[in-house]
Amino acid sequence: MATVFKKTQMLTDTPFHYCPGCTHGIAHRLVAEAIEEMGFQNNVIGIAPVGCAVFAYNYFNCDMIEAAHGRASAVATGVKRVNPQNIVFAYQGDGDLASIGMAEIVHAAARGEKITVIFINNAIYGMTGGQMAPTTLEGQKSTTCVYGRDSLLNGNPIKVCELLATLDGPAYIERVALSDASSVRKAKKAVKKAFEYQRQGKGFTLVEMLSSCPTNWKMTPDKALEYVKNDMQKIFPLGVFKEVE
Amino acid sequence: MKKLMKGNEAIAEAAVRAGCRAFFGYPITPQNEIPEYMSWRQNEVGGTFVQAESEVAAINMVYGAASAGVRAMTSSSSPGISLKQEGISYICGAELPCVIVNMVRSGPGLGGIQPAQSDYFQAVKGGGHGDYHMLVYGPSGVQESVDIMYQAFDKAEKYRCPVMILGDGMLGQMMEAVELPEMKDISKLPKQEWAVTGKGRGKTRKIINSLYIQPDELEEVTHRLFDRYAEMAKNETASEEYMTQDAEIILTAYGTVGRIAKSAVNMLREKGIKAGLIRPITLYPFPSKAYNDLAKKDAVKQFICVELSMGQMIEDVKLAVNGLKEVKFYGRTGGNVVSPEDIVNAVIKEVK
């Protein structure tokens, strides 16, 4: 019988620990497939964050480094500088990257570190049980803004792509969504482009993936995907924010 | 041929000659000459230098570079070292080698920029969270700093833990004639089997990690770390004794204060007081046996611990002396430095 589909060899056989309906699994697969399809299998190092993807080192079938909370892009800087021939990616969530790791991501981008950052924005701290994130939408409920985020009390969501696109170091910055089949296909193209720009040494690359968290959003998986599409994208519009020639 | 060099620059050059090919730092007085020197010197030897956005980022860059098996280091001073504690704990948990230089200044808080020894606890007891230690040296001069730095990466790799060189502003800023060791051929350095290369797949995958969710697993890892510390205590513990043969009063001090105390011993001897000195060179592991051996001598009446702090090392001295003899304290703090005369006067007060 002809094989029409098989799992990428860049993912291990360890079952994901992610909740049902969570889009981390899709994001992992896109990154892993991109690595395989681009032929980086024997030349790639990944950095895992702290947060829901803390066990990413169990899933990506390559050399992995587990970073402290928010420090993935600093760790990626260190390993890429001494191993410039490697493709280096950091996989970070919104609390990790846009809150505690904001200094590290801004400066890695400003220095034009030749790394690829996969930024999972699900607008919530998932691993710790649903607290407000730097990207939580106004009005969105969390365990630390139980009546919904009030911009006067809790501040406003941070738009990472727009912010980083003001810098001269980034070579490629795009925001994609994992809300339906066609947007997932677009997301994979973005990941491949980011890796390609890294390979060419053009500079810092980041792909933000709008993701769902049905468990902490207290929604069914399909409702959560609708929330990504209808609510998140209003605040976080999709598109390419920076692309160098 | 000897060369006149500032402590900070001599340490930086010794690190390069020891094979350091990645330096990540952030400006803070009184250690700025180390990153300044490294910024051009790493370039000359084909290494990496990054002026990081913070001490937190710098130590995490060290974590990344050390993960690849490259000899990586950072330097800072007290408030900056406090910021690095997160990364130091992760480096210890992930069993990575690296070198950290702390040119201590006074504290707490922003404190001052003058010499101090008030980071002793932080250096030898852990500093960050969790059960761990580092190999900590307290060199007393520029040549000793160079010699320790030259060996530091070998030790860090042997025990898979950071080596900290605990100096102070005096050590970093003073100029002395030093003999520099030869440049190591980095292609001949031992390969680190655990390092990430980008080539790992399946069973050959390398994972640098300090997360162990299963208590039994973490307990096993922690025991492995402490087995290494026990090995370290056996092999690396070092101290210097001066005129302790017939001494009745044993002065003890580390680092630059150890040298000042040596002058005080000479002055006390001229006055007919039988003083001696024990100067620990490794602060962790602490040379407890050498102290205990001295404490057991009938001639020895008491110990006087001299520190630029309110008394931190004295706790380890007391543990080592184990109640056999009295241990007194003399110290200055806030950035004040003791003179040999100050120590002599403190000792005379005690013997009266």
Our Rg estimate of chain B from Cα atoms comes to 21 Å
For the secondary structure, the number of strands of chain B is: 15
Written as H for each helix and E for each strand, in order along the chain, the element string of chain B is EHEHEHEHEHEHEHEEHEEHEEHEHEH
| Uncertain ranges of chain B | none
Placed side by side, the strands forming the largest sheet of chain A appear as 2-1-3-4-8-7-9
Give the structural class of chain A. Answer: alpha/beta
Q: In DSSP terms, counting alpha (H) and pi (I) runs of 4 or more, how many helices of chain A?
A: 10
* Overall mean confidence score, pLDDT of chain A: 98
Please state the overall shape of chain B, judged from the principal axes of the Cα atoms: globular
Based on the model shown, name its key terms.
A: alpha/beta; Rossmann fold; seven-stranded mixed beta sheet; two-stranded antiparallel sheet; 10 helices; 19% strand; B: alpha/beta; 2 domains; globular
Structure report:
- The complex is a heterodimer of chains A (245) and B (352).
- With 245 residues, chain A is of the alpha/beta class.
- Helix content of chain A is 38%, strand content 19%.
- Chain A has ten helices and nine strands.
- In chain A, the strands form two sheets. Chain A has a seven-stranded mixed beta sheet, sandwiched between helices.
- The longest helix of chain A is centred in the C-terminal third of the chain and has 19 residues, at 181-199.
- Chain B is α/β, with parallel strands linked by helices.
- Chain B has two domains: 3-236, Thiamin diphosphate (ThDP)-binding fold, Pyr/PP domains (Rossmann fold, 3-Layer(aba) Sandwich), CATH 3.40.50; 240-351, Rossmann fold (3-Layer(aba) Sandwich).
- Chain B is built from twelve helices and 15 strands.
- Chain B has helices at 7-17, 33-44, 55-67, 78-93, 120-124, 142-159, 169-173, 215-236, 255-270, 288-295, 313-321, 340-351, and strands spanning 3-6, 22-25, 48-51, 72-76, 98-104, 135-137, 162-168, 175-178, 207-208, 239-242, 249-252, 275-280, 282-284, 302-307, 326-331.
- Chain B is globular and about 70 Å long.
- Chain B starts with a strand and ends with a helix.
- The mean pLDDT of chain B is 97.
- The chains are: A alpha/beta (245), B alpha/beta (352).
- The interface between A and B is large, with 38 and 40 residues.
